[in-house]
C-alpha cells in the first residue's frame, strides 16, 4: 500500500454483511463509496460526527519504491481497490461475532504489515481529523519494520524506504519533529518516530517477523552471524526507552507476520499466548482501558503456542 496522504482513504470501504458462511469467517461484499473518493479524509470526519463508528484498516502489501514498480502494480489489487476481490472473508479482528472477536470496538485505526506501518505513521494525522471528543486509538500488526542491515552488512531497507519516501513525497505526512532531527527517510521507521506519537497505540509483532527476516535480513542465513538478534534487541530496546508512549505491545517469539486478521492467531483455543493471554484479550483490555498489556516473549523457540509460518 502506498503509505501517504490520500491513497489509503480511497480504499475505505463500508461493509455490508452478506452471509455467514463458515464458523471462522464470513464473507463481505465490497462497496465503493464514491463520495469518499471525492472528499477524501473529510468523509471520515463527517461520518464520525454523524455518530458512525467504524474501524479503518489499511491493507498490507508492501511498497513501491520507484515509478517503474508503482506502474507495475497499478492494475493489481495493490494499486487500485477496483482490482480487489469482490468478496472478502472477515475473521479474527474483523469478525462480527463476539465469540470470535469479543473485545474490539470499531473506532480504531488499524492495519497489518505495510498497513500496520501506515497506522503508526498516520496515527496522529488521523486523530487530528476527528473531533477531540472522539476516542481514537491505533493498532499496528506486524508494522514495526526495523532498520537493520542485511546479513552481508548492506543497508538495503534504509535505501528502499528512502526511495519510497522520495517517490511518494511522504515527508509532509511524517512527524515534523522527527524529520527535523533525522530527515524523512529514517522517520519511516517506527523505532525512530514512535516516540513522537501522541495518540494511544498498540503494537503487535512477532519478534521473529517472517517478512522481516526474509526481506530485511535475508532468507535462510538469518541467524548465522547473530544478525537477527539485533532485530529482537531493537524491539526490546525500544520498549523501555523510546516506546514509552506505546500503551501496549504484544511481541511474541513466533515466526509469523500479521496475527490479527486470522482467527487461529487472534482468538481460538489454540491461539498464541503471551502471559497466558491471547492477542484478542490483550487488545481488548487495552482498548477498553481495563488493563495495560506490555509483554515481550522469552527467546525463540521457548513459546510453544506459536503458529509458526512455514514457507515452501
Ligand atoms: C526500481 O526499484 C527496484 C527495486 O529496488 C530496482 O531494482 C530498479 O532498478 C529500480 N528502477 C529504477 C528505474 O530506478
Ligand atoms: C492460563 O489460563 C487458563 C484459562 O484461563 C487457566 O486455566 C490456567 O490455569 C492459566 N495458566 C497459568 C499458568 O496462569
From TrEMBL:
Major subcellular site: secreted
The enzyme's E.C. designation: 3.1.1.-
Keywords, sorted A to Z: Cell wall, Cell wall biogenesis/degradation, Hydrolase, Secreted, Signal
Keyword set includes Transcription regulation: no
Compartment annotation: Secreted, Cell wall
GO MF, any single term: pectin acetylesterase activity
Family membership noted in the UniProt record: Belongs to the pectinacetylesterase family.
Annotated protein name in UniProt: Pectin acetylesterase
Organism lineage: Eukaryota, Viridiplantae, Streptophyta, Embryophyta, Tracheophyta
